[in-house]
Write a structure and sequence with these properties.
The structure is a homopentamer of 361-residue chains. The first copy, chain A, has 361 residues and is an alpha+beta fold. The first copy, chain A, has 2 domains: 5-292, Beta Polymerase, domain 2 (2-Layer Sandwich); 321-357, no CATH class. Chain A is 53% helix and 16% strand. The first copy, chain A, has a 7-stranded mixed β-sheet with strand order 2-1-3-7-6-5-4, with helices on both faces. In chain A, helix 6 (177-211) runs parallel beside helix 8. The longest helix of chain A is centred in the last third of the chain and has 63 residues, at 258-320. The radius of gyration of chain A is 34 Å and the shape is rod-shaped. Chains D and E meet through helix 4, helix 6 and helix 8 of D and helix 7, helix 8, helix 9 and helix 10 of E.
């Protein structure tokens, strides 16, 4: 998954400037993704049996089993424009949307074109130590008897789902590819909660350190976290509209799973709610930190002022009797020294009483 | 009720990752709730008479009395997935919603499915000392001749309502289960005012301490209160939409109580208004505190500056006559010492006049 | 009118917890109101003549003169649940709304039920010295041939209206009770301008003191004013919707006065606009005050720094020649003392030039 | 034009309290306006010829030339209630709107009543030195063959329009009174750009002074400008809705000029956009100023700290050898004095190196 | 492109005050543009062949080839009112919109009038060093068989598009002028990403410098960047509505390219999203900077306080034994001097321990 600070907030479209619309170029910053080997795995559900295989080329995929059977084709590390062009031809994908699949800095969106439903969204991971969110694009194409899923990197995000489907594909048989699409979306949105959990822990950690005696300098951390929350919000916000759109799509594949989609929709709302709360909490933590700074500054200044105010008059007094005038009667007196001490002690006590009265000490 | 600082802002869904939809698992953080013993109480209203009993299993509940009679089944400490599954079977509850009842970190919501109306919301309690909001989930299922209420903990929230119903169940007979549902919602929303009252008192306390001479360090308190208000807002906001939805639901059980629901709706608006006011007041208190800090810093600095500015010149003068030069005519003079004092006193008075003019003292 | 700081932001519903809906209990905090004697005054308009009388009980009121005549019944200091119950019976008032009349912490609202129109809103007064808003609830019930107005306290708010009606009740005869209702609303909304005027003067006063040489500590004032503005906004905002609703109500009593209601509506918009401006102005004043604090702190620090920076090096020099080393050639020199002075004066001038260059002095 | 600081944010309705609706009283604060002499000028467009004259009374106006001819009657310094009443009678103006024309603290609004279209809005002027916005109310009444314009003061705002119409009244003949109304509105909205230009220059000036070496105290200026922007926004915002309403009014006089009104509408949008930008810029300037203050405070403190930290240890050292103990071996040593100097110089250099390392100097 | 700080936020309409609507005057501030020579280039697409030529006058343009052929006329440095008037006549352009083309401070807008579609928007460039956005207006007129594009300056913005069209004009033949219009819009919106990329790099640079040890004074930079973002937002926001309007325009030229326009629309959303993120990031950077200032101030104050608090008591002690009293027993003692040193060292260590305990050092 890519890691790039502020840069990730910017769609890297400059690379495509001057190309005609529909050009297939991989626009992603993930070096790891670009160098990983593309892997195509196939999972077929037919009459309650599940078969899995790994294929090398698109040619090995077609023809797919006809409609009662369901085929799920997952492509990891999708950065090979040529391969994608073959997919486009084999499955009659729209060129503009093929382009969006390769451009992994796409805003989440879904479209329904020529009988196929396209869904593009993001997976996230949060590195607590660097306070950095990594992201990876997932594109899903939903056909009558197949589902294509394109992952930007080699990912095991869908492994739990696969395990479940191997042992229990009953509901899938009943509800068709729509249910599989729902399952993919559901596991993606569910993964957002994991990311939120990690961010929540980090927020809690920051909050706890602030509550302690010696709050460390957490400015950079707060700033980084806020930056990442902005990034997350920007990328999750459209998912809500997207799933809402799927929910109301008049597609015969999706109508049977509408109650399920509604559940996913509720989850995205919950994710958004939590993100908003986090933003509020984060700005609360920042305010708290700034007031802690102010409070401690007050503290430091009080120490300085108390020390100075007590000793400066005393230093003046001892300075006076350090003068070398020939005629200073006090210096000759036997009681001069002890009286001076007495006077100085009284002065110091007076200042202490004053500061105690002001509650500075 | 659960108490967990920032963690409560996060739905704890990680526990369910990988489970198929509709799995019944208790997802709550309340240890107290998880260990408490489930209690099922039954209250039957028939022909103006009220009968109450406590049962051990779901089997003891069915068959319920038919429609003119109304049965209210309350389940305290609902964390037993098996028991809930039995309820699901006996009352034909929807599996997805059964799951929501067990997942006590649900966002408030209501659904109308297969003739049953489901309402899920929260009860709150505010611990003024820790400035912490405790929450507990309440789920209500409304059928033709029965109402199910599932509480996350053992709770006496509905006790006043029970007392009222024992003596006066007339309106209940006329208006049916809808009136009972309204009564439950009404006592829940009314309890929100109690929580608001407690928070208001805490706000008032903070405001008062700030008005005093020596404002204490209330940063943590303000931060905690704000965190709790965010939590409350997030959990009460959907209640408004929920009750609005119930109000416009075309359900024959709810239509007779629509004016009552409108009353509850007005109350939730009032709760939201008050919450918004509290947020504003809290940020006002924070601003006030920060300006108090600034103001006091100014004060401290003035004392330091006045003390230093008066004594530093004097110390310089006495330093001059503490020098050991052989030829310093002033030292020999008889008037040197008294003249020096005079000069120093005039200097000090001049500085005092200057600071008085600047209104620093 | 009641005065209670932050407490007024909170609906005092705790008193009613456990009571069935429709219970008549006075929920107000105004002690003055609770102890004042209820006063019922009657004003009848018939064939262009106006008759006024004060009655002791509801029984003296009925039967009212029939429809072409208009009767305005005003009840001051309404806190007697029994009396209100009698009113309810005599005029067929809805029990839920009777309850709202007694609960003087109601959110402004209007309802049209069973041929009667209910309007509940607030009167305000601003105590400039305490920066406190006092409020009083007014409830108006509009029937075919009568208007009931219930005031929380003994009030002369409607006296100017009465004077006007005594001499000129022509339009009232033409337009019916709707015009009387409009007149009451109009004089209430007009009174808001008086409150705004007072608050505006207070804002102006605060702004002026800040512009002076020695801005006083106005933190508490700003905080209190903001609290009161929040309170006002919360209570006036719903009035807008309320009057809008009356304007579009399909009631034969109100249709003839719709242009008048539109005028009142424009006034409430103007009130809201002004309130928003005040909020902005107030936060502007707060920002200004905080920057004044910062600016003055800078000033204080500059004096300290300039004083210290000039005298500290000088004190070091005189300290050097105050040392008691046996072999210090300078001390023996005849020119040592005057040269030291020269050097010190040059040093001081250098520092002064430096600070002048930095524009600190 | 009136000038009154915060007071202008407040509608001065207190003067009208107790008067029946429709009472004609001049409610304006402009003394200049109240004392100026009312002037009525007449401009008649007929068959391509333009005639102008000044009249003394309303009686001299009527009867107007019939419909193909267009008469524009402009009234400067409208504060005479009697005169306005005569206008009301002669042109059948609505009493409520006549009242609004005299109440020069009206919110901008437009109404279409009994075949006449009323438009009330404001002219502004910005006094850059005092950072004060002056305002003047303009009321326009649009009839079939006439336009009335009432100005609060004696104004030459429409002079350029008059000059244009004298030489070129062709389009006016084609498009009728609607075009004249549009021309008036257009020249008013255009004048807003002039005000914005002046405010923009003031903002630029403030920004520039902040960029300099010694930013002056611009707090008051920023505060005043913000106050005036709030005032402007409050008075221009409704103009947008007003013109939008005129645009969609089904009036046969206005339909032919709809594309022109759309142009004016675009301009008001642009004015609002610019006002919003100004608000953002102003708060940016305030933030900048506050950070400049912080930055300079840092600077001042660094000088103080560096001076103190270097000289305080040195003063301690010279203090030590200023002690009068009998047995201090160093004092007797021949090398004591030069070694002390060496040590002090090294200490000072060490401190300097430390602060240089910290980049404080 | 023009560069003018705050001034660019202001539409320079003052120049036009008093002119009748539809007057052709160049209202732009770009001196460069005003002095550049106007250049008219022609690109004709017919039967798959592309021909290009540069013409001197409008007369050389007409008659255009009829509808199956497509002519793209591009005018650079459009500031010559006479030339534009000729264009207006030759292509039947609406005078109000011609005026908008010359007024290069137009808000982005699109209109469909008399069979022609007008689109006016802006090109931007970001000068990273001065943190300044330069802008240039582009106006596009879409007819049946021609497209006019008017650039404020001599620009090579469309060069890549031209190159593409020379080699591949197939889709253009199929989809007609609508596709050419889309291509122009697409390359303009795409250029926004380049500007965003540059701003993003600048933000990143600011963020990085703040993360370093010695954050420089970046106040001015942050302020300037914010000002430019406000400017950008104000000018890009309407583009979204504009393209949305084009998308839903019932124009036979645009209907075939609706999916393409939708793509452009998505891009403008992405641009707006990114702009919003930038605003948030920028205010995050400002907050960070202010807290860094506070933190460092704390640091400076601690050094001062620690130094003063350690040495001031010591200086008092040495002052005491610098007094010249005749009878000071300590001075006579042999152990006086070493004991004093011991005491002073212990005092200093005590203070150090105290500050270490407070974590100030």
């Amino acid at each position: 998954m890519m890691r790039q600070g502020i840069r990730k907030h910017l769609p890297n479209r400059a690379l495509k400037a001057g190309l005609p619309p529909g050009s297939l170029v991989y626009i992603g910053r993930s070096k790891k993704a670009a160098s990983a080997e593309t892997r195509i795995t196939l999972m077929t559900f037919e009459n309650g049996t599940v078969s899995e295989q790994e294929v090398q080329s698109v040619a090995d995929l077609v023809p797919l089993k006809p409609a009662p059977a369901i085929t799920w084709i997952n492509v990891d590390a999708v950065h090979d424009a040529k391969l994608l062009a073959e997919f486009g031809e084999a499955f009659h994908l729209n060129p503009l949307l093929l382009e969006d699949i390769l451009n992994t800095e796409q805003r989440p969106k879904s479209e329904h074109l020529e009988g196929l439903t396209y869904v593009i969204l993001k997976l996230f991971d949060f590195q607590a130590q660097q306070e950095e969110i990594l992201s990876e694009q997932v594109s899903i194409v939903l056909g009558d008897n197949f589902i294509l899923s394109f992952m930007e990197e080699v990912s095991d995000e869908f492994e739990p789902l696969r395990i479940r489907l191997r042992t229990n594909s009953q509901r899938l048989s009943t509800l068709g590819t729509g249910y599989l699409a729902y399952s993919l979306l559901d596991s993606i949105v569910d993964s957002y909660f994991g990311v939120l959990e990690k961010i929540g822990e980090r927020l809690e950690y920051l909050e706890d350190t602030l509550g302690g005696e010696q709050p460390p300098n957490i400015l950079q951390n707060v700033h980084r976290l806020r930056r990442e929350l902005i990034f997350l919000r920007k990328n999750i916000w459209p998912v809500r509209d997207m799933i809402n759109m799927l929910q109301h799509l008049d597609s015969e594949k999706l109508i049977p799973v509408q109650p399920y989609l509604r559940d996913v929709y509720d989850h995205t709302i919950q994710v958004m709610d939590t993100l908003e709360s986090y933003r509020d909490l984060l700005s609360g933590i920042q305010d708290l930190y700034l007031s802690v700074l102010s409070y401690r500054m007050n503290d430091v200044m009080k120490v300085l002022t108390v020390m100075s105010s007590i000793f400066i008059p005393l230093m003046f007094i001892v300075g006076v009797y350090g003068m070398n005038f020939k005629y200073m009667p006090e210096l000759e007196s036997h009681w001069g020294y002890p009286l001076t001490w007495t006077f100085m002690i009284l002065t110091a006590l007076g200042m202490l009483a004053y500061f105690r009265h002001k509650r500075w000490i």
